[in-house]
Design a protein that fits this description.
alpha/beta, about 20% strand
């Protein structure tokens, strides 16, 4: 499972996204590395296996913006469970 946290400099929504991601990983007892990238991204964006957990788009556009739709714990749960199920061959 590949987990990426895409950040833009000075975005105030970074901290809530990190907290939600850490909570979701802890609640699901998943031990995975989170790759944090800072750059021209709509931030914060969490990609699970390359898919945005908020809107299910593959990847993120190249643009620096601070998102208002911060990834939530329920959205993160759903994406993490889907990725886990896909790896085990179980239906989602």
């Amino acid at each position: 499972m590949r987990v990426e946290l895409l950040l833009a400099p000075d975005c105030p929504n970074t901290s809530p996204a990190k907290v939600a991601l850490n909570e979701a990983l802890r609640e699901l007892a998943l031990t995975v590395s989170v790759l944090e990238r800072v750059g021209d991204f709509p931030a914060p964006t969490v990609l699970i296996d390359g898919v945005d957990v908020v809107n299910d788009n593959v990847g993120a556009p190249q643009m620096q913006a601070c998102r208002l739709d911060v990834p939530t714990v329920p959205k993160l749960f759903a994406a993490l469970r889907r990725s886990t199920a896909n790896r085990s061959g179980s239906p989602t």
